[in-house]
Write a structure and sequence with these properties.
It is a single chain. The chain is built from eleven helices and 13 strands. The chain has 366 residues and is of the alpha+beta class. Strands 8, 9, 10, 11, 12 and 13 form a six-stranded antiparallel β-sheet that branches. α1 crosses α11.
């Protein structure tokens, strides 16, 4: 097949005076793009890169119509808007060009962390209590306050609502008092120009579960029940769980998977994979991950992040789903998990392609 790899290179992103230093930390590097292209070529596909921007000089819509790829390998993050990860898939659907991964609605939903949490709450899936602030002076929800109504009931964790790669996440994201909460919300509102999410801070281990596959309609109906079934769907492959080894980092990181760790310390990422978990816990996490995959409508590949509450018998709480997980071959979570599974990088990339091709009724043979 002729496959166009669609992504946004960090080096091509716009810049301006006063831009937050982490503004484009979720964009890709040439190494990731080159690795994907080589992986596709290893299976005989003709692969090429297109910058995922409709603006000159990239002119994606025109170049897609000129090149007419059989399939697009989509990892485009986008630049602007609270549904920016859904913009390129929208163009692809308008042009009727098949692409890998989740569709428009899922990508828009997953980037909106509060909306995702509302969906999870509706389905009875465990996610920390939360409130969204559009102003630092917004009234605080009663269930986040103690009985006196004058203090927070538990520490809260403050972060932007529509970002990835832990953008905006620092040790100061953990707040213990109402003044700390309002100060952190005010700072993030000014810096990121978007609603700010404050959720119950779950102290404990950070685990991520990667999945490759799809859910058929019969399995989908079971997974979407409020009571998660005990049987894992056989159409999803669950990769070994990865634990971020937060204890290996400087105590100044405060036990948080910060943007600093994800970006500036990426080359020295400390992790445990497979994570040292009891089989029963792995099974429970896989069940929850499958449920999240289903209720958000994910396709082909995804990663669900959890915290295990050390103050509540390691109860797992769902933080978010990433339907566009990073694919840097050296340090992205999904790629590490695939290696622990015994897959090469080439196998991971081409499994995603094959799943998408099957969904779209394409012939996989190159």
């Amino acid at each position: 097949m002729r496959i166009a790899v669609l992504a946004n290179l960090k080096q091509n992103a716009p810049t301006w005076e006063g831009m937050p230093p982490d503004q484009w930390d979720d964009l890709d590097s040439p190494k990731t793009i080159d690795s994907i292209i080589r992986a596709l070529e290893s299976q005989g596909h003709e692969a090429f890169f297109l910058e995922a921007s409709i603006l000159p000089p990239h002119n994606l819509a025109e170049k897609l119509q000129e090149t007419r790829p059989d399939l697009c390998f989509n990892i485009a993050e986008g630049y602007w808007g609270d549904a920016r990860e859904a913009q390129i898939p929208s163009i692809l659907e308008m042009l009727r060009i098949p692409y890998t991964g989740s569709k428009v609605l899922t990508l828009a939903l997953a980037l909106d962390k509060p909306m995702t949490k509302r969906i999870l709450t509706y389905h009875g899936l465990p996610t920390p209590e939360f409130q969204v602030f559009e102003s630092a002076d917004d009234p605080i929800d009663d269930d986040l306050l103690d009985d006196s109504g004058e203090e927070l009931r538990f520490p809260l964790f403050v972060k932007p609502s529509h970002e990835g790669t832990s953008v905006g996440v620092t040790p100061e994201s953990i707040v213990h008092t109402i003044p700390e909460l309002r100060d952190q919300v005010a700072m993030q509102l000014a810096r990121y120009k978007q609603p700010i999410l404050a959720e119950h801070y779950i102290k404990g281990r950070e685990i991520t579960i990667g999945m490759v596959g799809n859910l058929g309609p019969i399995v989908a109906r079971r997974i979407s029940e409020r009571d998660t079934p005990n049987t894992l769907p056989d159409t999803l492959t669950f990769l070994p769980p990865l634990e971020v080894d937060l204890g290996a980092y400087d105590p100044a990181e405060a036990g948080v998977y910060t943007n600093h760790i994800k970006v500036e310390l990426a080359e020295t990422f400390y992790y445990l994979c497979p994570a040292p978990l009891e089989p029963e816990m792995v099974h429970q996490l896989n069940l929850l991950a499958a449920a999240v995959f289903r209720v958000t409508g994910a396709r082909d590949v995804g990663r669900v992040d959890f915290r295990l509450d050390e103050e509540n018998d390691n109860k797992p709480y769902i933080l978010e789903i990433n339907p566009l997980p990073g694919l840097n071959p050296d340090y992205s979570d999904l790629c590490i998990e695939a290696r622990a599974m015994g897959w090469s990088y080439e196998e991971l990339i081409n499994r995603i392609v094959n799943l998408a091709a099957e969904r779209h009724g394409l012939h996989v043979a190159a």
